[in-house]
Design brief:
single chain, 475 residues, Aminopeptidase, Alpha-Beta Plaits, 2 domains, 23 strands, 30% helix, 28% strand
């Protein structure tokens, strides 16, 4: 069985890839599939302890003297599903649906980020197209730590030009990217016996999306909205938080959040919620029209203390979120942002994980310090992990010039190049390959990292044709 859509040489491989579990951290099966693919075709292949795969294909006739080209993508995907989905990402294939020119999944992320790149890589290896010597690099853990790209060493690759096919906007070539880090704000849980039954407040229906590529679109953050609701209740009646959870990944804008609470006066609390819901719906009428808030009774045994409840509400009220600074050099580009992504309890602590991004190191450090100071002022602590480097713009880039020229030749219209407010593996790879000329591009993919993710089919066809033409021009 296949998807029966063109270009078949690409989508047949995408279908096969989506039959294999490949959540970040669970890539061994798909990595082994890639190794088997290479060995079946008698191609040189290398697999490391992080399950990164490098497949080497000799140059076509007439291209033996051309410089080796690295084509890079990542095999892992963000795994998010709707609340009612029974999908098991550890074993179930991604169920895909074709709707005209749109390919999406049924209640889950599609995995076009970045499975469509892997499909193109396999199609190049499996086909007979003119090209220089190729090094196909397929990395792991891109969606979490970028540890796969970070482990690549210069001795493994000979290429002097690198095509990263992890872009999401056709006709736009990325030539630099933001760096970032993850901050964990932690609060020791202080609990006491509940004074009675409680309420569950659940936020749902938000768009979510990629916390870098879509942070500028003004979408609601479920964790932030949850505390706006709790703050509104606190102004009307005495309140104790009993439990908190929200978000799924630090690079995904949270679309769901939930709080268990005790309130002294339920009628006043419900009235406060009704009032703030109307305010929030007006605020996000355009950016997030699906916002829904549900209230239901729940039994309670214990709750957070009054002091901890008040400190948490203060912390979230003062917490920065979303776009902080826009670039003064590139119109429309976010320079610095943060996403308050995942809220959870662990080891008697409440933890908020926040993803920070910036193309300016000093602003990233200042924002990290702000979160640290704020957490400490509210009786918590702060820790940092998963730093990843940015990728600086190169004023002189023959590869960029070639890409723009080939695109114009193929489609008779100009392409553009810009920076991207997201972490790309080019940042890590540039550290290992400082003299390698790099560029990033890809087909149109929308609402990545969310259950609404979809791929434009004809865009894949155009990017595939462009990639073949680009390689053919490198004689």
């Amino acid at each position: 069985m296949t998807l029966q859509i063109e270009p078949r040489v690409v989508f047949d491989w995408f279908y096969q890839i989506n039959q294999i579990p490949r959540e970040s951290g669970n890539e061994k099966a798909v990595s082994d599939f890639l190794v088997h693919f290479a060995k079946e075709r008698q191609l040189d292949v290398e697999q490391d302890e992080l399950w990164n795969v490098i497949i080497r294909k000799p140059a076509s006739s007439g291209y033996e003297e051309a410089e080796t080209v690295i084509i890079q993508g990542h095999m892992d995907m963000v795994c998010v599903k709707t609340e009612d989905s029974q999908h098991d990402f550890s074993q179930d294939p991604i169920e895909m649906q074709v709707d005209g020119n749109i390919l999406r999944a049924n209640g889950t992320t599609l995995g076009a980020d970045n499975g469509i790149a892997v499909a193109m890589q396999l199609a190049l290896l499996d086909g007979d197209y003119p090209h220089p010597a190729l090094e196909i690099l397929i990395t792991t853990n891109e969606e979490t730590t970028m540890a796969g790209a970070g482990a690549i060493q210069s001795r493994q690759l000979k290429g002097t030009q690198l095509l990263n096919i992890d872009g999401e906007e056709e006709g736009v070539f990325f030539t630099s990217c933001a760096g970032g880090t993850t901050i964990s704000s932690s609060f020791a849980l202080e609990k006491e016996v509940a004074l009675g039954a409680g309420l569950c407040i659940r936020i749902d229906g938000l768009k979510g999306g990629h916390s870098g590529m879509e942070i500028h679109q003004g979408r609601a953050n479920a964790n932030i909205l949850l505390f706006r609701i709790l703050s509104a209740i606190q102004k009307k009646t005495d309140l104790r938080i009993a439990s908190l959870t929200g978000g799924t990944r630090d690079n995904v804008i949270p679309s769901q959040a939930l709080a268990g609470i005790w309130v002294e006066d339920e009628e006043l609390a419900r009235h406060a919620v009704e009032e703030i819901i109307q305010v929030l719906k007006k605020e996000f009428l355009t950016a997030d029209p699906g916002l829904s808030v549900f209230i239901s009774p729940i039994p309670l045994d214990v709750v957070y203390t009054k002091d901890l409840t008040e400190r948490l509400i203060t912390f979230f009220t003062l917490l920065p979120n979303g776009v902080q600074v826009m670039s003064q050099d590139i119109s429309g580009l976010v320079q610095t942002s943060l996403n308050n992504a995942i809220l959870f309890e662990i080891d008697d602590h409440l933890v908020l994980q926040t993803s920070l991004r910036s193309s300016m190191d000093s602003q990233l450090e200042e924002l990290a310090n702000q979160l640290k100071v704020l957490a400490e002022l509210c009786g918590g602590s702060s820790s940092r992990k998963h730093d990843y480097p940015g990728w600086n713009f190169e004023p002189i880039s023959p590869l960029r010039d070639r890409c723009l020229a080939v695109y114009k030749d193929v489609y008779d219209k100009p392409a553009t190049y810009t920076a991207v407010h997201a972490g790309l593996e080019c940042g890590f790879l540039k550290q290992s390959l400082p003299d390698c000329d790099m560029i990033s591009y890809g087909p149109n993919i929308y609402d990545v990292h969310s259950t609404k993710e979809y791929l434009e089919i004809d865009s894949v066809a155009r990017v595939w044709e462009f990639t073949k033409s680009l390689l053919a021009s490198m004689r």
